[in-house]
Structure formats: C-alpha cells, structure tokens
Amino acid sequence: MKFIDLFSGLGGFHVGLSKHGHQCVFSCELDESLRELYKINHDIVPHDDIRTVKEDEIPEHDILCAGFPCQPFSLAGKKKGAKCPDSGKLIDHVLRIVQYHQPKYIFLENVPNVITIEDGAFWDYLKNSFESLNYRLEYKIISPTDIGIPQNRKRVFIVGKRNDLVKAFEWPKLKNAKKNDFQKLLNDNFEHKKLEPQKVQLLEKWQELLDVLNLEEITGVSIVAPEFGADYPLDFSNLTLEEIKKYKGAYGKELKNCKNWDEVLSFMPSYTKKNFRVASWITKSIIYSRGLYKENTKACEEWKIGFHFTNNSWQILEWRGLRNNPNIFNHLVQFRASGIRILKSNIAPSLIAMTPTQIPVIPSQNRYVSTQEAAKLQYLHKLKALPNDRKAAFKALGNAVNAKIVELISYNLV
Ligand SMILES: C[S@@+](CC[C@H](N)C(=O)[O-])C[C@H]1O[C@@H](n2cnc3c(N)ncnc32)[C@H](O)[C@@H]1O
C-alpha cells in the first residue's frame, strides 16, 4: 500500500511500514535538520510545515500516518491540548487531508494523555471528527516492553478504519513477548559520553551511605539527605519565629539564632520553602529518611560531613530499583529535577525529547547510554544516519515512534 508520513521526524512510521513493503509517497516535517536526515535515510524530501501543504499536492495513499506533536498533551507540557493554538490544532490539518483523500486507514501515535486530557474532551473531538469523515477510531496503549524491547514507554496507538472496509481491524497479540534485558543491548564499543567526574563522585558518595546503612531492603520511595538531623514540623506555616527557632532545619542546622524568617528559610530544605511546609510528593520519603537517621545516627552524621553537593536534586536518592539490592552500580541512573533516580538495570526509562538532562546513565561503566543504544530502544538502529549532535539525536529519538510497534500493528492493516 501507499502511505504518507506526517510530522515525520526520524521516520519511525516509515521504518515500520516499509517492513511490509508499503511505499511512502509523501512526508512533512517542520525541522530542517530532520528533513535532511529523512532524505538520507528514506530517500524522500519532506515538505516543511503541514499548515502550508495543499491537499492536492499530496499523492493518493492508503494509509495516513501522523505522530502529531505530543508536547501539549504530555504531563510535562502543561496539558494544553487542542486549545494550544500552535500544536493542538495541528490535528485539524490531518483532518483536512483525510477529508480530501479518504485513505483506507489512519494511524496515529501520541502520549496516552491525549485520551484523558480535559476529561476526554480532546479524544471525543478526535473520534467525532474522524467519525464524521467516515472513520471508526480505536486505540490501544502499548509500551516497547510489551513486545520484548526493554524501554518503558507507554504510548497510545490510534487506528482509524474507513467504514466501508469489510474486514475488522485487529490489534496484535502482545502477551508472552520474549523479555530482553537492556544490559544485553549495551555495547561499550559504541561512541559514548563519559559521566562527569563530579557525578561519579556523587554516586560513590551515595553508595557509601547505602553501604554503611547495610539495609536488607530499601522500603522507602526516596532517601532525602537534608532530613538527616532535621526535626522541624512538616507543616510550619502556622509557627511564629520564636516557635520555629526550637527546631533544627536541613542537615540538623540549628535555627535558634535566626533573626528573621529569611534566615530560617535559608536553613530549611528547598522543598519546604514555597509553602512553609513539606510538599506532599515527598512527605513519606521524609518520614522514611528521618527513621533511617534515628536508627543509624552515628553513620549518617559521619556520612553527611563529606557530602558537599549543593545541587538540590542531588540530595535526594529516588529508589525505583531492586529493593533488596541497595547497590547503585547494579542499576541505571537518571539525573532528574526531583532527584537522582535509580532504576532497574534490565529496562531503560522512556527516552524523552523535552530535555537532554535525563539521558540514562550506566553507573557500572561510568557513562551515559549512547545514541546507538537509544536507537535500538526505538528500533531505529538500522537508519543510515542520526543527528550528529548527541543531544539532538536523543531529542529526535525521544520524539520518535517505536518502529517495531508500528511494524507489528501494521500487519493487520490489509
Ligand atoms: C512527536 S514527533 C513525531 C516523530 C515521528 N513520528 C518519528 O517517528 O520520529 C512530532 C514532529 O512534528 C514536527 N512538527 C511540529 N510542528 C509541525 C508542523 N507544523 N508541520 C510539520 N511538522 C511539524 C516536529 O518537528 C516533530 O519532529
């Protein structure tokens, strides 16, 4: 069949559909460098802005693919949805192309949030708009982990079938996919970036703590270092200056000599400063960390003497790893705004486009995941070219649709 690839990026749809011999007849992509790569990888020069594409310039096609920009729908993108004038409304350009060409199938991908955003209003809009154009939409949330690729990345795949097609569309069966370990996909011969020495020291310092605590199991969500020695009330918004002075702030700093609230706040942990109380997302971890401190006061006091890192997010160790294996170096690490996140080593976290700061780290090798390894997680490793710049490559891969999921779904587009 013939297909078109709208918002084509690196061409995840292209790679997946080509596996069945389908032929791409048109694509469009706003980003110039991605257009150049598309030419190298897929031998098609994409049109630029979808808003300037005339329907009759697009060749006839059977499948319309569109990974419309997800930023307005992702949790991080402030949930603006279709109200977002720049991106949310881009789907209307897909609708006008569908109205003109009436392809057999529509194939969309986005973050799962598109289904629930604004109480389902955007999804209703999508479904009803396509229905009025004679299509029935179905969706399924699929992660690469469901098909044996070790990346946690839930995305919604939406397939629309033209109403006159007789054969029912079926989603691929995903159960019993062979599990592949991310560690087996690593190859330190690929070009990679070393972890900065300061971050190596940071991880070693945190491991020193885990070693002295000698925990059989990490039962809390996060270990929050500023709570070692602190005893301020979790909500101090109603206290007077005299009352708060009886307590100890971050790392057990005495507040008794503070002359005003500005001074008090300078001794308090960052997560209390906005509302004069502990933010709810971290409350349980604070209680857990104070408990650890109480039971291991001497060890925690000794450890904190050598902990000189001032970056707020480096003072929190978010444990999403194996509970009974408190060794950072047996895990993956992500430096996030909320803390240093420790993840199980067998599955990579979702590649994301919004920020290059969260590229996963392999601490046992003191390095970041390489672009080639990331490309494997998206099943785009056979592309001839990726962006040369590492950050741009991760951004493009984080934007892309997983080509293997596309391939599996499109078995049933017949
Ligand atoms: C979620 S990504 C889709 C990625 C693609 N499916 C892939 O496999 O790489 C959305 C893409 O839409 C592009 N885009 C944003 N606004 C656009 C517009 N007005 N016209 C065409 N492309 C646009 C972005 O540059 C981005 O590459």
Automatic annotation (TrEMBL):
GO terms (BP aspect): DNA restriction-modification system; methylation
Stated family: Belongs to the class I-like SAM-binding methyltransferase superfamily. C5-methyltransferase family.
GO MF term list: DNA (cytosine-5-)-methyltransferase activity
Coiled coil segments of this chain: none
Highest taxon in the source lineage: Bacteria
InterPro entries recorded: C5-MTase (IPR050750), C5_DNA_meth_AS (IPR018117), C5_MeTfrase (IPR001525), SAM-dependent_MTases_sf (IPR029063)
PANTHER family reported for this sequence: TRNA (CYTOSINE(38)-C(5))-METHYLTRANSFERASE (PTHR46098:SF1)
Keywords attached to this entry: Methyltransferase, Restriction system, S-adenosyl-L-methionine, Transferase
Stored SUPFAM superfamilies: S-adenosyl-L-methionine-dependent methyltransferases
Residues spanning the membrane: none
Reactions that this protein is recorded to catalyse: a 2'-deoxycytidine in DNA + S-adenosyl-L-methionine = a 5-methyl-2'-deoxycytidine in DNA + S-adenosyl-L-homocysteine + H(+)
Active site, per annotation: C70
NCBIfam families for the chain: dcm
EC number: 2.1.1.37
Name of this protein: Cytosine-specific methyltransferase
